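Reminder to self: tokens first, then the designed residues, so the page reads top to bottom the way the pipeline ran.
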């Protein structure tokens, strides 16, 4: 019998499912963060001004994240019941059409409804992509595959800044929707995960949320995964999104441009994603690297809020550093996927990052409650300290997954 051909690590990483998952997350992040970039000009075009820019900005952000919470559950269950590809097709279609429609809004109310629908669609992309990539790649290089996916996603956030800088905000939404529909065509040639195909022949329950609650150990592991990711979205959802307001409170020499802060933070995250992914492969550990990056996040949050930086250029440098520290997003989503069996993997990998994103709602609410009593800066500091402490404690109790065999399922 002839020896079957072997593939090099690079050939594995360049397989169509990996590339399509990476490109899908690029479009996903473009659409997700475009709102942060165009928040001020789009709301001004709809007649909003003054304090309303912050209030309506929080409302729209929370509705988008609320959509992601609902979508995370829906797409996660669908991914385990019907397959990873069903999510990759459905989610991109919904958020692409919603973002095209965003370009036509004439009222804040229309904007709010469409941000919720866009969030619903955006919720499925990352979890399904990461699940598919971890299941089709060999154990020793799956970290490289998820790093590629996450890095491409962060490049999508940077692309949103440059597109919005060149084009009017409505055109920027049209471009995002068009990119998603174009990518949808490529997905017709992607094949399903072999582990999921194998699972379909068994009688084991798939995509059953009850399995998460039927075991205290599973539920605790699930909650710990969510807590590990909270510092990332505290930084993105509060410090970076509302950087103009923080710049004013900190007495900077020039106004902070939200779009520029977003672009610089995600430029830093590209480097952070690459660094954390490769360092994890070198050290053979996900947990050690995540712990290191959470520590860096704590350091730079302190600098952002407490060091008297009067120069706006230095403030932007700190935004880059905060983005770099957020670079453990890749490992956080990967470890969530690796901790659970094939019959729950898509559910967990999709809901966990979306619950972290959706946590912006209670985090901003808590921030809003604290702000009148302790001020903008110290309110953010208290919220940030809670998220970082919770993340470190949760990480301590999680299992190391670097060499974990993913061919298993969760028992009823």
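Designed residues (412 positions):
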């Amino acid at each position: 019998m002839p020896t079957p051909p072997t593939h090099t690590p690079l050939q594995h990483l360049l397989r169509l499912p990996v590339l399509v998952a990476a490109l899908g997350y690029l479009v996903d992040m473009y659409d997700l963060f475009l709102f942060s970039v165009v928040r001020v000009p789009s709301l001004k075009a709809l007649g909003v001004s003054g304090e309303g820019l912050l209030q309506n900005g929080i409302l729209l952000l929370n509705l988008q994240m609320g959509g992601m919470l609902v979508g995370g559950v829906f797409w996660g269950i669908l991914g385990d019941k019907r397959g990873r590809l069903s999510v990759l097709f459905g989610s991109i279609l919904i958020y692409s059409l919603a973002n095209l429609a965003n370009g036509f809004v004439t009222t804040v109310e229309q904007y709010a409804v469409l941000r919720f629908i866009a969030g619903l669609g955006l919720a499925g992309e990352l979890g399904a992509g990461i699940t598919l990539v971890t299941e089709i790649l060999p154990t020793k290089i799956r970290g490289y595959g998820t790093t590629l996916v996450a890095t491409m996603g962060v490049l999508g956030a940077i692309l949103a800044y440059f597109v919005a800088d060149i084009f009017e905000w409505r055109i920027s939404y049209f471009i995002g929707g068009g990119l998603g529909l174009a990518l949808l065509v490529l997905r017709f040639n992607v094949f399903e995960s072999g582990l999921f195909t194998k699972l379909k022949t068994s009688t084991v329950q798939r995509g059953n949320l009850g399995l998460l609650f039927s075991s205290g150990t599973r539920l605790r592991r699930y909650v710990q995964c969510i807590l590990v990711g909270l510092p990332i979205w505290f930084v993105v959802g509060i410090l970076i999104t509302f950087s103009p307001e923080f710049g004013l409170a900190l007495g900077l020499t020039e106004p902070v441009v939200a779009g520029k802060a977003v672009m610089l933070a995600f430029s830093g995250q590209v480097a952070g994603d690459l660094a954390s992914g490769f360092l994890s492969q070198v050290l053979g550990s996900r947990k050690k690297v995540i712990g290191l990056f959470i520590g860096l996040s704590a350091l730079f949050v302190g600098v952002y809020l407490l060091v008297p930086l009067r120069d706006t250029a230095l403030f932007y440098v700190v935004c880059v550093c905060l983005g770099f520290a957020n670079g453990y997003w890749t490992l956080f989503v990967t470890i969530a996927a690796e901790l659970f069996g094939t019959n729950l993997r898509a559910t967990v990998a999709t809901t966990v990052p979306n619950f972290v994103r959706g946590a912006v709602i209670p985090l901003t609410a808590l921030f809003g409650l604290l702000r009148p009593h302790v001020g903008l800066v110290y309110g953010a500091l208290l919220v940030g300290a809670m998220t970082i402490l919770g993340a470190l404690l949760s990480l301590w109790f999680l299992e190391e997954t670097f060499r974990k065999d993913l061919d298993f399922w969760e028992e009823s």
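The CA atoms of residues 103 and 262 lie 21 Å apart.
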